[in-house]
């Protein structure tokens, strides 16, 4: 059959024959080691063949999956140079605009570079997390439509929308079809900074498809997506693969289910070398035989091919598996917390997040002892472990933004954090918590933090950033904090240290390698350590384990509960050497800390939230019902926190895709033994020493982003008015006490007292007028 095809159709798009790859030229001088990658690689991606060749690159963390994809698109140095070629791109069958690999082969992923097709570069303009929620829009806050059409330059010579299709322009029909397939129609007019993690991933894929490439490289395309989105995305990719328009090459972790339509695999070792390559069934069969041989004792385990990374390899991603129905035998009844006397760290008493006339969060009523109350009612106490589950765009991250005070509406909502309000409470005599107070007591790891963490930070600087006020600020470290950083880097050295730094002495690698140079999995580990190392009152893990291998994730979740005291030896948990020596510097979560975990699949939920074996556990769920026309498909958020449901077993999140609820469906909460708190520091009194401090230093108890500071401004006017009144009374009283005042005192003191009294009244009136006008 191939004999009937023209030569151009038989030419492979990518042809690699005995090529070895390097990050730098082998003879160049570099501060970083430069090992040979994928030695003597032989790979070919056909341009036309009766049976499709749908490749997937599989490997554990640090195995080089992203590096392999970059090699395919011509980003690494190939030795010899002629070993890598793109014959089909030189043929007449290819449009002139796609004659170079940079244009014909598009990459979509979450690596530090995020080249073409990424929501990065000129598009990501926010310098802080709150920018996503603020009403003010900058000229560079491009909409999703602009991003998809390539209109992301302020003064472009020519936009893709103005180009012809032959030049690479995007037709209206193509745009309509792609955004419909990826369920992005309702998001087109939103700024890209508004998109959730999963929506951003779909937008990247859509942008790459609109360039109509010959090959699309998708780096872990299902990572961070909820089951319903995966259910829709996998068939879409299958249809593209079947039509070879474009041809697809995916990457995946060993534990990830492989789409049914994948036909060929490349399995990578942990030293960036190819272990096996070929048809899927043959590769999987060989790996399973290796695992069996090691377990029965017939084969020695290769340290670069550990069997624990292969335990779940070969699972199939199918629509039936994703849409498995969950049991509905739960009965609804209101539960009470295990320890209602534990100190509440978060108190939400009817919170509704509104954008204009739309309620994005809290469009429901909850039953309380006082009756039904609108909005989100939620209390997080010390020692509690919470799970928050739901589809992309459902509002999980919005809830987290309220906890960390990143959302501007936090200032106007009935929220108490650590027992104190964000705004002054009349008659309380205490100053509200500042943004910096809150941030210092919350450890936060999320895709948004990942996006904003400077790529120029070294690995050590990322971990030390837990003690800094902002991502770029200098951390305030003492000897204890520095010792914790050293211990954390040593504990997670296998997960953080790049393979190319194998010869580095001690922890020098942590100072030599930047955050943007390490793998995606290593970046997530570094951010997880950053969220834990300081021992904050609340730890928020928002999809923190997404992108990690099973082994890396299990090590992190064990560290979450036990710190340095426990470790894995194979698949067994044992006491660590540090615990035996009494040198443990890093401990797990204490019963004085609260945990809030957000995830899409059960495996990414720590055992302390979902484990069945705890005698003190209470498992509960809050189903989230859809609200009218504001369905997930239409881009709205939905309602949550209906009456609690008792659960008899942990939620299988992947089984809840069919449930018509917004976090499909549930919050799952597990409680854990708590202790009585030590209490918070006592708030400052209204009058404090030194007395002028409320006037001179009031900005120390506020911050530049207090959007609702009318009450604080009024208090400043009131203080000033009272001080002037005191001065006026003091002058007048001293004048009358003296028996025979001089002429100068008569001419100056008495009028001066009157002036201060008038100023006091005027200041109070100005303050009251400003407060009334501001509200």
UniProtKB/TrEMBL annotation:
<dbReference type="InterPro" id="IPR003439">
    <property type="entry name" value="ABC_transporter-like_ATP-bd"/>
</dbReference>
<dbReference type="GO" id="GO:0012505">
    <property type="term" value="C:endomembrane system"/>
</dbReference>
<dbReference type="InterPro" id="IPR027417">
    <property type="entry name" value="P-loop_NTPase"/>
</dbReference>
<keyword id="KW-0547">Nucleotide-binding</keyword>
<keyword id="KW-0472">Membrane</keyword>
<keyword id="KW-0812">Transmembrane</keyword>
<dbReference type="InterPro" id="IPR050334">
    <property type="entry name" value="Molybdenum_import_ModC"/>
</dbReference>
<protein>
    <recommendedName>
        <fullName>ABC transporter domain-containing protein</fullName>
    </recommendedName>
</protein>
<keyword id="KW-1133">Transmembrane helix</keyword>
<keyword id="KW-0067">ATP-binding</keyword>
<dbReference type="GO" id="GO:0005524">
    <property type="term" value="F:ATP binding"/>
</dbReference>
<dbReference type="GO" id="GO:0005739">
    <property type="term" value="C:mitochondrion"/>
</dbReference>
<dbReference type="Pfam" id="PF00005">
    <property type="entry name" value="ABC_tran"/>
</dbReference>
<dbReference type="InterPro" id="IPR003593">
    <property type="entry name" value="AAA+_ATPase"/>
</dbReference>
<dbReference type="Pfam" id="PF02656">
    <property type="entry name" value="DUF202"/>
</dbReference>
<feature type="domain" description="ABC transporter">
    <location>
        <begin position="353"/>
        <end position="618"/>
    </location>
</feature>
<dbReference type="InterPro" id="IPR003807">
    <property type="entry name" value="DUF202"/>
</dbReference>
<feature type="domain" description="ABC transporter">
    <location>
        <begin position="14"/>
        <end position="295"/>
    </location>
</feature>
<dbReference type="GO" id="GO:0016887">
    <property type="term" value="F:ATP hydrolysis activity"/>
</dbReference>
<feature type="transmembrane region" description="Helical">
    <location>
        <begin position="717"/>
        <end position="737"/>
    </location>
</feature>
<feature type="transmembrane region" description="Helical">
    <location>
        <begin position="749"/>
        <end position="772"/>
    </location>
</feature>
């Amino acid at each position: 059959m191939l004999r009937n095809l023209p030569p151009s159709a038989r030419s492979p798009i990518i042809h690699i024959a005995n090529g070895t790859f390097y990050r730098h030229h082998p003879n160049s001088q570099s501060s970083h080691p430069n090992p040979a990658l994928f030695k003597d690689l032989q790979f070919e991606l056909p341009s036309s063949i009766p049976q499709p060749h749908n490749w997937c690159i599989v490997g554990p963390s640090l195995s080089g999956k992203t590096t392999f994809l970059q090699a395919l698109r011509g980003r690494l140095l190939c030795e010899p140079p002629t070993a890598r070629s793109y014959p089909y791109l030189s043929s007449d069958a290819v449009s002139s605009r796609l004659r170079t690999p940079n244009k014909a082969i598009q990459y979509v992923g979450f690596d530090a570079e995020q080249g073409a097709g990424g929501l990065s570069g000129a598009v990501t303009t926010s310098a802080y997390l709150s920018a996503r929620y603020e009403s003010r829009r900058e000229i560079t806050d491009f909409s999703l439509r602009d991003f998809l059409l390539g209109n992301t330059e302020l003064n472009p010579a020519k936009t893709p929308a103005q180009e012809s299709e032959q030049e690479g322009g995007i037709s209206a029909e193509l745009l309509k079809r792609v955004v419909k397939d990826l369920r992005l129609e309702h998001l087109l007019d939103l700024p890209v900074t508004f998109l959730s993690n999963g929506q951003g991933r779909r937008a990247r894929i859509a942008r790459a498809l609109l360039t109509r490439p010959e090959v699309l490289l998708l780096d872990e395309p299902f990572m961070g997506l909820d089951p319903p989105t995966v259910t829709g995305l996998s068939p879409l990719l299958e249809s593209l693969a079947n039509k070879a328009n474009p041809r697809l090459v995916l990457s995946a972790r060993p534990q990830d289910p492989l789409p049914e339509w994948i036909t060929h695999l490349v399995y990578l070792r942990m030293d960036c070398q190819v272990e096996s390559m070929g048809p899927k069934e043959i590769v999987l069969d060989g790996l399973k035989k290796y695992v069996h041989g090691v377990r029965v004792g017939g084969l020695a385990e290769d340290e670069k091919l550990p069997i624990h990374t292969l335990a779940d390899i070969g699972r199939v991603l199918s629509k039936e598996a994703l849409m498995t129905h969950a049991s509905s035998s739960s009965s609804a009844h209101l539960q009470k917390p295990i320890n209602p006397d534990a100190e509440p760290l978060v108190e939400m008493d009817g919170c509704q997040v509104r954008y204009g006339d739309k309620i994005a969060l809290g469009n429901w009523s909850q039953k309380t002892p006082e009756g039904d109350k609108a909005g989100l009612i939620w209390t997080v106490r010390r020692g509690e472990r919470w799970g928050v589950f739901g589809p992309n765009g459902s509002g999980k991250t919005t809830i987290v933004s309220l906890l960390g005070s990143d959302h501007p509406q936090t200032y106007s909502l009935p929220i108490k954090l650590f027992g104190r309000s964000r705004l002054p409470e009349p008659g309380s005599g205490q100053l509200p918590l500042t943004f910096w107070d809150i941030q210092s007591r919350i450890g936060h790891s999320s895709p948004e933090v990942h996006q904003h963490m400077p790529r120029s930070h070294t690995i050590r600087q990322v971990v030390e950033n837990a003690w800094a006020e902002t991502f770029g600020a200098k951390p305030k470290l003492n000897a204890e904090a520095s010792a914790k950083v050293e211990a954390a880097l040593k504990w997670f050295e296998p997960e953080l240290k790049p393979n190319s730094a194998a010869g580095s002495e001690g922890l020098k690698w942590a100072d030599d390698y930047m955050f943007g140079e390490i793998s995606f999995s290593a970046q997530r580990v570094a951010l997880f350590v950053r969220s834990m190392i300081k021992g904050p009152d609340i730890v928020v893990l928002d999809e923190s384990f997404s992108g990690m291998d099973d082994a890396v994730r299990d090590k992190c979740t064990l560290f979450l509960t036990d710190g340095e005291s426990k470790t894995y030896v194979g698949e067994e948990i044992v006491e660590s050497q540090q615990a035996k020596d009494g040198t443990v510097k890093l401990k797990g979560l204490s019963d004085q800390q609260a945990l809030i975990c957000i995830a899409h699949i059960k495996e990414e939920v720590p055992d302390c939230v979902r484990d069945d074996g705890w005698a003190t556990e209470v498992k509960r769920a809050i189903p989230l019902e859809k609200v009218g026309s504001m369905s997930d498909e239409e881009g709205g958020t939905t309602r949550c926190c209906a009456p609690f449901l008792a659960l008899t077993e942990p939620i299988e999140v992947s089984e809840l895709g069919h449930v018509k609820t917004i976090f499909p469906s549930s919050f799952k909460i597990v409680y854990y033994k708590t202790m009585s708190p030590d209490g918070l520091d006592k708030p400052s009194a209204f009058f404090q020493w030194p007395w002028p401090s409320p006037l001179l230093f009031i900005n120390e108890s506020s911050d530049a982003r207090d959007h609702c500071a009318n009450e604080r401004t009024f208090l400043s006017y009131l203080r000033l008015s009272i001080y002037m009144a005191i001065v006026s009374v003091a002058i007048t009283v001293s004048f009358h006490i003296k028996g025979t005042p001089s002429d100068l005192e008569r001419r100056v003191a008495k009028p001066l007292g009157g002036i201060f009294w008038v100023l006091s009244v005027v200041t109070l009136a100005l303050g009251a007028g400003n407060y009334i006008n501001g509200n």
